[in-house]
Amino acid sequence: MKKNIQKAYCAVDYAFQRIGGKYKGRILWVLREGCLRYGELNRAVVGITPKMLTQTLKELEADKLIIRKVYLEVPPKVEYSLTDTGMELIPFISQMRSWGEKRMSAS
Amino acid sequence: MKKNIQKAYCAVDYAFQRIGGKYKGRILWVLREGCLRYGELNRAVVGITPKMLTQTLKELEADKLIIRKVYLEVPPKVEYSLTDTGMELIPFISQMRSWGEKRMSAS
DNA sequence: CGGTATCCGCCGAGATACTG
DNA sequence: CAGTATCTCGGCGGATACCG
C-alpha cells in the first residue's frame, strides 16, 4: 500500500532517527565489547548528563538496539548490552568513525 | 592522553553531524549517480521545502561533500554533484538504507 | 529557474537539584 | 547506584510569500 519510491527514501530517515542524535552512536559504540553499567556508561560517554543518558538509553531500548537488565540487589545494579540488531550497526559505526577521523585530521 | 580518547569518541559525532539531520543522507543518496539541478533535487527529495533544500545544500557544500556548479546562462542553471569525500559516504548510506528497510519490514 | 525572507512551533540538549 | 524533576534555550524544520 505504500509508495515504493517514498519508502525507499524513508529507509535512510528511519535508520538515522535510530542511531542519529548526539549520543546514540557513541553509546552503541562503547557497548560493542560487552555490557556496561549505568555509571560506567556515564563515564565512558564523556560529557553526557544523567538526563540525556537515561533518555537516550530508553530510546535505544524501545528500538530494540540495547537490552536493559536489572539486578534486584542492594545497591542497585543495571547493565546495558547490545541486541543482535544493535550489533549489526557496529560495523557501520566503525566505518563512520574511520571516515570521521580521516576527515578531522585532514581539515 | 585525554585528548586522544575524546577525539576517538568525537569522530562518531563529527561524522553524524555531517550526514545527520533530516535530509543530508537523502540528498547525498540521490546524487550518487550523477549531478542534479536544484529543481530536480526539489522533486527527488520528496517533501523538502526550498528553504531546507538551500540550507542543507549549503551545509553539505561547506563540508565539502558536494560541489555547486553555476552556469552563467539565462535561464539560470545550477548543478550539484558529489565530491570524492561525499562519494566515500555512499556505501555507508547504502548500508543504512538496507538496515532501515529490513527493520521497517520487520516491525 | 533558483533561490530569499519571515514567522513560528517543537524538541533535543544543557544546567542544576533532588530521590528510592 | 541509578536514576527523576524542572527550567531554559538554540536551532532544526515547517508554512508561506516574495525576488533577480
Automatic annotation (TrEMBL), chains A, B:
Pfam families linked to this entry: HxlR (PF01638)
Zinc-finger is among the record's keywords: no
Domain of life: Bacteria
Stretches assigned to the HTH hxlR-type domain: 10-107
GO molecular function (one): DNA binding
Keywords: DNA-binding, Transcription, Transcription regulation
Stored PROSITE patterns: HTH_HXLR (PS51118)
Keyword flag Manganese: no
InterPro entries in the cross-refs: HTH_HxlR (IPR002577), WH-like_DNA-bd_sf (IPR036388), WH_DNA-bd_sf (IPR036390)
The protein's name in its UniProt record: Transcriptional regulator
Organism of this sequence: Salmonirosea aquatica
